Amino acid sequence: MKWTGKKVALVLGGGGVRGFSHIGVLNVLEEEGIGIDLIVGTSAGALIGGAYASGQTPDEIEKKIDAYLQSPEFDDSRMKSIGLSFSQEEKNVLKKAQNFIMNRVLFVQAFFKPSILPSHDFQSLMNYFLPDIDIKETRISLRVVSSDLMTGRKIVFSEGPLRKVVLASCAVPGAVEPVRYGDWLLADGGITSLVPVHAAREAGADVVIAVTVDRDIQTNVSIETAKDVVLRAGEITTSVLEASELADADVVIRPQVGSLHWMDFRRGTDLVKAGEDATRESLKTITDSLPFYRRIARFARRLFRKGKKKVNLPLKLI
Q1: Which phi-psi region, left, alpha or beta, contains residue 32 (left: φ > 0; alpha: ψ -120 to 50)?
Q2: If the chain, 318 residues long, is cut into consecutive pieces of 10 residues, what is the mean pLDDT of each piece?
Q3: pTM for the model
């Protein structure tokens, strides 16, 4: 008879490249033998979570990211050129002038097109990282969160083409074109649920481990123009909604991502380590939140792995 104990969910929040931190979280959970029954992801969390749930190891995902960022395809993409403009590295006068011109061009383009990034850039990213399967076929149960621009509703996918629904979850407003799905016009899941704890509870999770990779709200900002006010209002709204969801989690893991922009691709390795460090700091809280039989299983798995060569085991507990 199949054991029907408490369901443990891992919730992975959105945050663009800051989502590389999720790989570090998965690394430590595997090392510690902490079993996960369900993954729920928004945006970058949906991409990393979808890759992992479909059977890829954290190491494989990290290697794929490194290979993609060094590929001719990425080198020629607008994602790279725009990402470099947001990099926190010191820039010379020429680079600053180029960034100034690019930002003005993108601003004008935003009035005439649905996105500033070509749709094929992001579609190729989905095809590179994710298998062409239905969500129902993943090895670990998966939920992908998106937002319908027509009704304003949070849309949670438990079935459907994995690549398409993750693309919809990653469709950052203005940056990536919304995705048509039946009567829905789908965009970034972070619009309605940046860290989808409530979606995990709705899916039957008894224990929720949430990972937030959102940027810290800066308190020393200058608010002088209408644009500054609108951007600040959006940050505050997102922060309040996120806090409401995180309050319903049993464990909250917060990798230290600082003020890194969501398109700054230069700190991948640092972000993975930030995820590992934050997860190790949270291990006691995670262990305390697990059902008793899961603690015993974790203890037994760790004993077993001490006597064996390290292998990558899926988080799904058999």
Answers
A1: alpha
A2: 70 91 96 92 96 96 86 64 50 43 46 61 86 97 97 97 96 87 95 96 96 79 78 80 94 85 64 94 93 76 61 50
A3: 0.81
Length in residues, the chain: 318
Query: How far apart are the C-alpha atoms of 84 and 88, rounded to whole Å?
Result: 9
Name the one residue in this structure whose structure tokens are 């939140």.
289
Alpha-carbon span 180 to 148, nearest angstrom = 10
Residue 295, pLDDT score: 79
State CA 29 to chain mean position distance: 16
| Calpha distance 200→228 (Å, rounded) | 34
List the structure tokens of 39: 């993954």
